[in-house]
Amino acid sequence: MTFPTTIVCAGGGGVGKTTSSAALGLALARAGARTLVVTVDPARRLASAMGVQVGPMVQQAHVEPGLEGRLFALMPEPRQSTRTFVDLLFHDEPEALQRMLDNRVYRLLADAAAGMHEVVSLMLVARAIEETAFDYLVIDTAPSRQGLDFISYPGRLATLYEGRAVTWLSNLAKKNDSDGEVRSASGGLLAAGRRRVEALFGRLVNPQTLRDLAGMFAELAIVKERFAHLARVSEALLTGNSTRYLLVAAPSGSAAADVRFLARKLKRFGQRPRGVILNRSDAVVPRWLMSLQQTAMPKELQEALQVVGTEYEARVRAGDALTRSMAGHLPHVEAVRMPTLELRDPTRIVGTLATQFGAHLSMLTGWTATPAG
Amino acid sequence: MAASPHQPQAFPPLAPVVLVTGKGGVGKTTVAAGLAEAAAAQNGRAVLVEFGDGESGRRVLGASRVMHRVVEPTKALESSVARLLNSRLLSKVFIGNFAIKRMLRAAPALRELAMLDAVGQIADEAQGARVVVDMPATGHGLAWMRLPVQMRDLFGSGGLYELSERLVHRLVKPSQCSVVVVTLPERMVLQETLELCKGLQEEVGMPASRLVVNRFPRGLSPDALVQARALAATSDGNTESARRLVEALEARDAIRREALETLGEAAQWGIGVRPLLIPLAEQDPMASAVAQWLTREKAA
Fold this sequence. Notes:
Strand content of chain B: 5-15%
Number of helices of chain A: 16
Strand order of the largest sheet of chain B: 3-2-4-1-5-6-7
Mean pLDDT of chain B: 86
Oligomer: heterodimer
Order of helices and strands of chain B: EHEHEHHHHEHHEHEHHEH
Strand content of chain A: 5-15%
Helix content of chain A: 40-55%
Low-confidence stretches of chain B: none
Number of strands of chain A: 8
Order of helices and strands of chain A: EHEHEEHHHHEHHHHHEHEHHEHH
Distance between the termini of chain B: 16 Å
Number of helices of chain B: 12
Strand order of the largest sheet of chain A: 3-4-2-5-1-6-7-8
Distance between the termini of chain A: 25 Å
Radius of gyration of chain A: 25 Å
């Protein structure tokens, strides 16, 4: 299996990250790369703009003609994704699947407020790339500072599985339920400390929950190898040599601070941002606006033009400030300034943004066109 | 912000605890800080709760009477377990255990429960001061409100059950807790916000007490668009520029119109009296400006 090049887009909320991820995917597809766009924060309007549906399967996107077989999208629904993942994990074990679905601890994890969805989406990708060869993956992340936390989850889940922790937890759960002696994974000096923790555990949760917990681990043990394999593939996607992290910001709220935070977080994971996309950061007031400012026109239109002009000027100032801030805090990272798009139709927004990205494709993604012939 | 020309109809009062929720980037911190500032102006005291490093809240509050409480999620977990076990030391032992630690990392829901517990604690200590919580951007606002009931039903008995039950009574009750939803006028964001409002009413029984639309574009004279189209219809050198202006004015107009239509639909999901529209300004306003505006709108 050849690994695709992974581009991960991270940034705070409200910066246009999901749209940018889709546009980047489109730009790559136009350039000839077979590309899969994955969003973890799916919006139905974006899905329909790409001609796909929110759901757990990889689908061919339909944005514009001439891209047949090159652009694909995976937009899993947060509340469904764990179910999808469990379905694919327990594909050959229908009875274990049913027990799992009935398990109350599983149901708690399945509908958790945050965290699991990204990991599950990633594992869905891991499965998808086993079936189809892609040149590029563009992964959109959650619009917050916690958006990159999931980088370590697949690895952690894999170690949870492969290490002694699961055996210990599973024994712990059984011990508090039954009268039997627990066989610790390692006895002796550590046994006393472990017994104390077992007792604490019993004070926090009731026997039924412990039984459910033990049950859940027992079911997962049946598909342990598949689980660990998918977790490792996910981890490799995020931490591979050719993986690139792009940060996305816009001149509003805490977007700049979010990007700085995410850059520090990347460093802790042993990664660095390859580029920063600055959305809604017009470099200049558009020429059409400036030329109209010289034109005679009725009073109401004049006032309207003034309001629109002031807003554009404000955006340029904000864009300048953001660019300076990025240059100061992330001096070795190239920033790409994108203008505000006064378009409402999401398909046109994605298409126009993709054209803008096209000029910076090599810098942003490392894509180099293969010579013809 | 300019004073509204009408006499606003007063909203029903807010509960002692206010949770401000919405998608990332809509301006929750600005609105939360404004609500806290307005409460402090009315009653002398108020608390703004933030999760994470509290940087944005500090920036928006500026110099303020509002007490700024920043809750770090991992510490919140340690504190909640310490309260349950009646011992901070035991809590450290438990959470520090190699296997428990890994299990906790795999189940973010427990950390989130602890964060809600921290809010409950702060509310208990607040003694009458309004507590405004800038909810984290992660996780759907609805998921936060569902969590105590889910956890209560999951655990059935024991320490974590009691904690969940306590939170259901403390937070998932309209008399104790108000939910304020913040959104932007863009269609994609508004649609999702509507889904949130619907869910809050139907699934949790906590309809939004206020719906705040941030960065709402100023209205322009309808004559302007007519005039712009006329200009674009001429065939002098500026036709292309005029066409671009028409596009910009139409886009703006459409955003306003669609937003107002969508907000009209939102009314059926029990949102207070009417949506609040914070006008688009060059920079996001400071808490004091938002507070004054909210007070004038009788929404604080």
